[in-house]
Design brief:
There is one protein chain. The chain has 187 residues and is an alpha+beta fold. The chain folds into two domains: 2-115, no CATH class; 160-187, no CATH class. It has helices at 2-19, 29-42, 77-81, 86-95, 109-115, 126-129, 181-186, and strands spanning 49-50, 55-59, 63-67, 72-73, 164-166, 173-175. Strand 2 and strand 3 (63-67) form a beta hairpin. Helix 2 (29-42) packs across helix 4. The radius of gyration is 37 Å and the shape is flat. Keywords: Metal-binding, Zinc, Zinc-finger.
Length: 187
């Protein structure tokens, strides 16, 4: 089992290292595609008004203040996702700055390469198969505390047991049943 997991992880790491070789940008392709979608969505916004070097005001349904120096936007999406929202991208494009400088570093190819650069060391399975210690036994299982069986509230699905009673009709002793004792003796 451990050997299969290890070999599967080794294959996955190798495939993802090779997958990266076709990339030419500094940002992962999935993030680039998402940025293109956000830029297309931002085309409907009005051009931003520049207040200072890093401070912008973008008018849409509501007014959003964008501060590129502090990496903040009034909508809050940039802070949560790490990817600039439509308001921020509009300000970056209008100001002529590179978009890569305003994206969280964890979305860069450098971080992608670091995450798959670790080596998975080989493990000698023989060390795990020979046990020199005592066998571990599972703990004893106790019954969980519950309501005593005699005091349980009867359930509609329970089958009632037969019991003895004295019939009111013929005053004979009989077993309890859905039939009366007259019908019981007649058959």
């Amino acid at each position: 089992m451990i050997d299969r997991i290890r070999s599967r992880l080794m294959n996955q790491f190798s495939e993802r290292r090779n997958y990266r070789n076709g990339w030419s940008s500094l940002i992962c392709p999935m993030i680039e595609n998402k940025l293109k979608e956000i830029i297309d969505a931002g085309k409907t916004l009005q051009p931003p008004i520049k207040s200072s070097e890093d401070l912008f005001e973008v008018h849409s349904i509501r007014t959003n203040i964008v501060d590129l120096g502090r990496f903040s936007c009034a909508c809050g999406r940039w802070r949560v996702e790490g990817i600039p929202c439509a308001h921020v991208l509009l300000c970056i494009i209008v100001d002529g700055r590179p978009i890569q400088d305003f994206i969280d570093p964890m979305f860069s190819i450098l971080f992608y390469c670091k995450s798959y650069s670790h080596k998975i060391t080989l493990v000698d399975i023989g060390d795990f198969t020979t046990a020199h210690e005592e066998v571990v036994i599972p703990p004893e299982v106790r019954n969980q505390p519950s309501r005593p069986k005699t005091n349980m509230i009867p359930n509609s699905g329970l089958v009632q047991q037969k019991g003895h009673f004295r019939s009111k009709i013929c005053m004979a002793s009989a077993e309890w049943s859905n039939m009366t004792t007259k019908n019981l003796f007649d058959s």
